[in-house]
Amino acid sequence: MTDVTSQTPLPTADACCAEFAAVSRRGLFSGAVALAGATTFVGSAAITTSASAATSAPAVLVVVSLRGAADGLSLVVPHADPAYYRARPGIAVPAERLLARDASFGLHPALAPLLPLWDAGTLAAVHATGLPAPNRSHFAAMEAVEDADPGSAARSGWLNRLIGTTSGTSPLQGFNLAGGVTPTSLYGPAPTMSAGKVDDVRLPGEEDGDGGRRRRSLRTLWDHDRSVLARGMRSTYAAVDQFGPAEAAADHSASYPDTDLGRALAEVARAIRGDVGIEVVTVDHGDWDMHSGMGSAERGWMVNNASALAGAIAAFFGDLGDQAGKVTLVTISEFGRRVVENASGGLDHGYGNVMFVAGAGVKGGRYYGSWPGLGTGDDADLQVTTDYRSVLAEIVSQRFGASTAKVFPRFSPESVGVMTSL
């Protein structure tokens, strides 16, 4: 089994927890494309209703979700904390093998493709991030992270609220290019689009070489109709028309790792280079649910995932061309893993984690966050000292000039310092 945007097949051992496996079977990482709410399907893509076409976006945010709860203590190793090595005799990464090592932290050696970004000051890591309270259910934690408005009855995700603060109303502003189900973060009243590939964005029944007959027929049918459905249809074909430059953009997927995430980020870069007004893009990367068989610092599940993640992100930033100056990427996972390795050579569900922020506006080449120290009890967790929303709020305010109160209601973000001012 290989997830939609995962880099490697799941291990042959039955390591995945039952809940995460059930989520996968329900289609969260499958190739089916679907949107909750009122949508119009466009070939293999799905588009919500809207009123106007897109214009060039001044900033683009790419959110890469590390599904299954990545172990932040392996990705960014706290080598100066002696509890780390006591807790992980079989899976710890030796300090001498770490990259970009400072007095406290270092990057997993499999993240080597990201070193040029780190050295250029466009990649940073924020440690001990996460939800305000522990939540060890994959499904519930994903919902909480992507809704980002605890206690609210409103059905909208933080990225949909971000789109709602900008001036446009095109479905192209919010794009899920992972295939599969559009995440909670994009759900809400603002129009969004979902597709597995750039070339999937077309009208139902439209074929290459039809001379535009399908589009002319739809315009004849809907252009003078004043109903809500007609407005949605006009929005649909306006968005498809607007998407042409993305389809015309060169496909550079051969320069990416031959992985699902590599292929997905190649599509994202192509769409961004088309400059069709995309503002936010979501991509999934799993499976990180490493309850057993995690592997060593030299080989195994963690090495494979980290290597694939780093290779795809590095290729992505090398592929953006003249659009690179407006693109920021952030990684997020629903929760972290326990400090102490288990008897199966893996890690059970934990709490705190790490977030990577790369690209435009990032004050990179360093580690951020307040380190709480690690315990070595059986239930020891990395405690959260930075609410993940504070990291996202800094991106939202500094890159988009958006109101953090509208995107993250009832939340007062703390300063992280990872982003430059507008």
From TrEMBL:
Among PROSITE patterns, the record links this protein to: TAT (PS51318)
**Pfam families reported in the protein's UniProt record:** DUF1501
Record's protein name? DUF1501 domain-containing protein
Q: Which parts of the sequence are annotated with region: Disordered?
A: 192-216
InterPro entries with a match to the protein in the record:
DUF1501, TAT_signal
